Amino acid sequence: MNANQMAGLKRWCVALGLCWATVLQAQPCADLPAERTVSDQKGGCLAVLPIAQAQAQPGAKVLVVLLHGDGEGKLGQRQVDRWSGIGRSLLDTTRHVVFMVRPGYQSPIGDSSGWANPHDDDYTANNMARVAGALSVLKKRYQAEKLILVGHSGGAATSALVLGRHPGIADAALLLGCPCDVPPWRNHRNAQRGRGGPWRNSLNPLDAVASIPSTTVVLAVTGGQDDNTLPEFARRWVNQASTKGLPAEFEEAAGFTHSSIQQWPGIAPSVNRLSAALGH
């Protein structure tokens, strides 16, 4: 479909009140407006959604980037709306907030370059490099002094891996429901489902802890009723990080599940706390 055909389809959909998300999903990141796409410095780009960008003052020094969880290479409007709500809760005149679509994912706000496995086994070195490259570009775009990652599930694993494999790209992270020790997590999930095998493509965040700069501040939070990424996986990561001298803490959010942790009221206070720890 060429640009003129795309524009005509958009007008038709808007007129009828139909399929807006479907139309947007057909847009590769290279075709998006400049503010909605970012180079991954690997020959591709990632789709991004600035959250009320105008709220931040021109001199805002903190950039918060939101990373979604696994979804077999697809992200629906419901997930985008949920992350937009999280982003709005983080708005402050001292910071910019941006939602990023992980490599290879199709989404209503645009499709990112790269590869996403339909079976979710895609925490690869190449994907981590794409995310890190895009974060570096975003940091320059917003002239940010500090970068805070907020990731859920696979987005939390991605955040933890970027911290270790690309030291200095991010300064802090909030890891929500993190599968931070991939092999035993996969064993647990396979046992739950009675099927499956090990993930052979994905890196293990626990193996990257040693390379994380000692100034990096991390808070990992897992729901007390999370039967997917059990609290022990993030706790194990934090224990190893603490042993290495990182200012990392684990918190178990009583009553929250793997999904509902995204509605945890402590998200905004935690980001405020991380920002304060970074001097902002």
Topology:
Elements: H1 3-16, H2 20-25, E1 37-39, E2 45-50, E3 62-67, H3 77-89, E4 95-100, H4 125-141, E5 146-152, H5 154-165, E6 172-176, H6 182-193, E7 217-223, H7 231-243, E8 248-253, H8 267-277
Parallel strand pairs: 3-4, 3-5, 5-6, 6-7, 7-8
Antiparallel strand pairs: 1-2, 2-4
Account of the 3D structure:
The chain has 280 residues and is an alpha/beta fold. 35% of the residues lie in helices and 16% in strands. The protein is built from 8 helices and 8 strands; from the N terminus they run H-H-E-E-E-H-E-H-E-H-E-H-E-H-E-H. It has an 8-stranded mixed sheet with strand order 1-2-4-3-5-6-7-8, with helices on both faces. Residues 1-25 have low confidence and may be disordered.
